[in-house]
Amino acid sequence: MHPTKPVLYIFAISHFCEKARWALDWLEVDYELRHVAPGEHREIARRLGAPHTSVPYLSLDGQVIQGSADIVSWAEKASPTNRSLTPNDDTCEEIEKRIDDIAGVHVRRFYYSEALVDHPSTVRPIFTRDLPWLKKLTIGLAWGKIRKIMISRMDLGASQGEESKGIVDKELTWIDDLLEDGRSYLAGDEFSRADIAVASILAPLAVPPEHPVYYRLQHPPRLTQELSHWEGRPSFRWVREIYAKHR
Do residues 35 and 11 lie in contact, with contact meaning Cβ atoms separated by under 8 Å? Predict the structure, then answer.
């Protein structure tokens, strides 16, 4: 009897989903990747018995692991390799938690406050990537409603985008300062979950070519202008280097 594969449910566009996916790949965990549609993800989560409705979540034999950090921890235990992503260094998980809780929220809000509000046609192709054609059609028909729900739930708008831009700028400065001593990795001498977290969360801005989706991401005009001012930041160069080495 073949062992059951875990199933990872994701939005292709989500940086938190990329974090979970990257950890599973790097730890060589055999899993099934399942892209889900907005709205559908909530129904699936409830059906599986997940405590929340947000992606990513991973299902295996009636068990549900939800949230990128918990999926990374699960993947370490499930890995057939001797690799580890959690060094004996408290700063590793401190960095991961900060980037998840602050930049993870505000990178998304900064991007969507322009892209989803003013240029929704640039967002839909990424959301529907790798979905069956019938689901793509359904999302297309319901896109106006989906967009309004997302704008409300994520508190999007021009002033919100400006607020999030300022917060992201401060978090980029924090990462720039960590890198000032010339380190290759953020927590110790080895690649860790802190590196996966920071690189994944900042990937929508740095757009590394090795990313499974973002190399096709079309930034809206104001965001493009802002990113041109940030282009020379050490944090952006570091994200691209980490992706080139480890993704």
Answer: yes
Task: For the chain, report the end-to-end CA distance as a whole number of angstroms.
Answer: 32
pTM score, whole prediction = 0.93
Residue 35, beta-bridge partner list: 10
User: What is the Cα–Cα distance from 138 to 42, expressed in whole angstroms?
Assistant: 16
CB 201 within 8 A of CB 109: no
> Facing residues of 132 across strands?
none
> pLDDT tens digit string along 143-180?
899 999 999 999 999 999 999 999 999 999 999 999 99
